[in-house]
Amino acid sequence: MTRTKWALFALLFVSYAYFYQAGGWNQNSRFALVRAITKEHSPIIDPYHLSTGDKSFDHGHYYSDKAPGIALAAVPFVAAARPIARAFGVDTEGYAGVAFLSYVATVFTAGLVTAIAGVALYTLCVELGASEAGALFAAIVFGLGTPIWTLATIFIGHAFSASLLLIAFAEACRVGDGDWRHGALAGVCAGWATVSEFPAAIPAVVIALLVAAGARSLDRGRALRLVGALTASALAAAAVLMIFQYVCFGSPFHLAYSSEQGYVGMQHGIFGVEIPKLVRLRRILFGEYRGLLPLAPILTVAPFGLVFVRRRLVAAAAFAIAVYYILLNASYVYWEGGWSYGPRHASPAIPFLCIGVAMLWTRAPRLGRAALAIVGAYGVALTLVAVSTAPLPPNNIRRPVAELLWPAFVDGDLALNPQTFVSGGANPDFRAHTEPKAAFNLGMKMGLRGLTSLLPLMLAWAGCAAELRGPSRAR
């Protein structure tokens, strides 16, 4: 099983690290904070604010308007990469240097944590009663067959936060053995998920309640240590956020969104969140513009699989978190998520739905597994098209797959995003190219062009598949 985990991790991590998706307002806002901290030793992004429209303005200075978790997580990696780049003669403030540093920031936050979450999902599903084959199938669907793959290659917080929540959830399911470290890891992961994307606060509470429920079966001493570790680690994450906000705005309770510029819709409800609307829900789930199920149709049946989870409280918690994120997306004024492949605000529901995928595979007859495999493979193929071309297609394209992604992929026109991490905008006509391209994949860096640039990734997949298939057959 250990070899399977390592092969699964390699499959996912290589798939994420293979693509560099370049910039955009959301990712530029976060990386501006990383640049400011590692170069200017300050959270003020004044030198970089022209690279993004996603920013706050307070007391005469510009700040990133995003939750800071993923940016703060990237700081040590970027700080370590700066002298390495300079040692090779790379100007870290030039085009190549910024591209390298932003690649490092993305790979070692969104990419790394999502790959770890894929392994955590595999392990959790086995512990919940799924077969190892079913758990492996669910982990691959999660990591490669849904929009999570695209989000794991972009320096934004959705895949990062979703993955931390999943890891926290898995630890919460293990507290029955009384080990306080499960509580500590659940607390810090759920806490940092919230520091990275504020809507994760509600699922974090659900996870804390799951820990508390598990602690009820323990003796008083072990239960107190477990809950104490959960509380202390979660408060530590919260303390980092409050200190950061105090340094930026002079108050530990001042969210950057309170000083955001240019988004009138954020004044509706609670930072743009109001009552869910049925029309948004339909578009989020089924629409050609941002619909999740057309992009990952296997998720249509995933909720039914949660019925087969033997631990009812765990199944209910997973379902509640998934429903929360979908309804949250349907409640948000900017529900479409700007430039996006699918409904990115609903994406943290995906790992919790994939628990049901593992259970369905385990219970299904051979013909049912064949059907699941075909639908899952379709999701992987479609997501490969997106991640290879434009994982954040412009919002002026009403049918992104049919009008942009598939035609470009067939033509071998890959890595379409023209916006860098230092430019404040981009031509939404992604196929009107400028050179050098802002985005790339590693095959392009090897001198390969078009669809042939994906061959090294396919070879890596073949190697991982051989490792994964051997143990599965033996079992």
What features would you describe in this structure?
- The protein is mostly helical and 475 residues long.
- It has helices at 2-17, 25-40, 69-87, 95-127, 132-144, 148-151, 158-172, 180-196, 201-215, 220-249, 278-286, 292-295, 302-305, 312-331, 350-363, 366-389, 400-410, 442-445, 455-474, and strands at 19-20, 55-58, 61-64, 440-441.
- A two-stranded antiparallel ribbon has the order 1-4. A two-stranded antiparallel ribbon has the order 2-3.
- The N and C termini lie close together (10 Å).
State Rg: 21 Å
Strand order of the largest sheet: 1-4
User: In oligomeric terms, what are we looking at?
Assistant: single chain
Tally the beta strands. 4
Could you say which overall geometry the principal axes of the C-alpha atoms support? globular
The stretches of 5 or more residues where confidence is low (pLDDT under 50) are 471-475
Secondary-structure-based class equals mainly alpha
* Helical amount: 55-70%
The chain-level mean pLDDT equals: 93
Query: How far apart are the termini?
Result: 10 Å
* Number of alpha- plus pi-helical segments: 19
What's this entry about, in short?
This protein is globular. Helix 5 (132-144) runs antiparallel to helix 15, helix 8 runs antiparallel to helix 9 and helix 9 (201-215) packs antiparallel against helix 10.
Indicate the topology.
Layout: H1 2-17, E1 19-20, H2 25-40, E2 55-58, E3 61-64, H3 69-87, H4 95-127, H5 132-144, H6 148-151, H7 158-172, H8 180-196, H9 201-215, H10 220-249, H11 278-286, H12 292-295, H13 302-305, H14 312-331, H15 350-363, H16 366-389, H17 400-410, E4 440-441, H18 442-445, H19 455-474
Antiparallel strand pairs: 1-4, 2-3
